[in-house]
Amino acid sequence: MDRAQTDARIRGIIEPFNKKGIEISDGATFAGDFEFDSLTVMDFVAAIEDEFDIIISMNQQAEIENFGQLVDAVCKLQRD
Asked: Which of 13, 46, 48, 75 yields a CA-CA distance of 20 to 30 A from 39?
C-alpha cells in the first residue's frame, strides 16, 4: 500500500475523533490542533493498529506529533 492509500485510510479513521472538524493536513498535531487527550490517543492508536494489523510501540507513539508523521510511521511498520 502506498503513502496516499495509507493517508486516505487514516483520514477515514480519524474522522470520528476529529470533534472540532480540524482540517487534516500533514502538519496537523494531535495534541495542539485536534486536542486529543490521552484516552482519545489510546482509542485512536488502537483503531489504527486494528485497521492496519500493526503494533505502534509507546516509544513510537511518543515521537509521532502530527498527522504526516503518523502516516509515515504506519507506512514503515507495514513494510517491516
From this structure: 75
Q: 71 and 3 in contact (C-beta within 8 Å)? A: yes
Each domain of the chain, given as residue ranges in start order, spans: 3-79
pLDDT (0 to 100) of residue 80? 86
Q: How far is CA 17 from CA 1, 3, 39, in A?
A: 24, 21, 11
Q: Helix or strand or coil: residue 29?
A: strand
Chosen CATH of 3-79 out of 3.20.20.120, 3.30.300.350, 1.10.1200.10, 3.40.50.720: 1.10.1200.10
pLDDT reported for residue 58 = 94
Residues of the chain with pLDDT under 70: none
pLDDT digit string, tens, across residues 45-62: 999 999 999 999 999 999
